[in-house]
Amino acid sequence: MVRSTERKVASGFERTVAADASAVGALRDDAAAVARAAGADEQEACDVRIAVGEALANACRHGSPAPGKSAITMRCAARDGRVEIEVQDEGAPFDPNTVPPPDPFEMRSSGMGIHLMRQTMDEVEFGRGSSGNCVRMVKRLAHPAEQGLSPGAASGDHATRALEP
Asked: What beta strand segments (E) does the chain contain?
């Protein structure tokens, strides 16, 4: 069983959770909260939410050799007018360039994640981390806040708390 961990980092968080779909919502919400605290408007926060949800869903579905027992680590930080997110899984190597682009005339129930990440974020890079695949995504903010997270910037049971710079 994977032990969930959380580490505070300047203007964000690092969290390791079991590769289970039940963790996706909280992590997605926390990433959007970091973005909003950094000055993201609603569209930018929505873009972060969509991309993080897709990256986590892919990590759970494709990057977890033992679902529920494998781990996913997500890092999210706001700095220099941008939100940077990394999602690392324990999966076998894969080449994202082998994933075909979606056909606009075909509705699919899956297979849109990489496309959605690339459409909603300014930078998306795939690589290998220390124990599996890693996707790194960046969203540049049109009107970043003057400083990092402020007290009370995120709310909810799973909220990312204000972090020290």
From this structure: 5-9, 12-18, 71-79, 82-88, 123-128, 133-140
Instruction: Please give the angle made by the CA atoms of 156, 71 and 118, to the nearest 5 degrees.
Output: 75
Q: Where are the domains of the chain?
A: 5-140
Fold for 5-140, please state it: Heat Shock Protein 90 (3.30.565)
Q: What is the pTM of this model?
A: 0.82
Per-residue pLDDT of the chain in tens (165 residues, 90 and over written 9) = 566 666 665 689 999 999 999 999 999 999 999 999 999 999 999 999 999 999 999 999 989 888 778 999 999 999 999 999 999 999 999 899 888 888 878 877 777 899 999 999 999 999 997 889 999 999 999 999 875 444 334 433 333 333 333
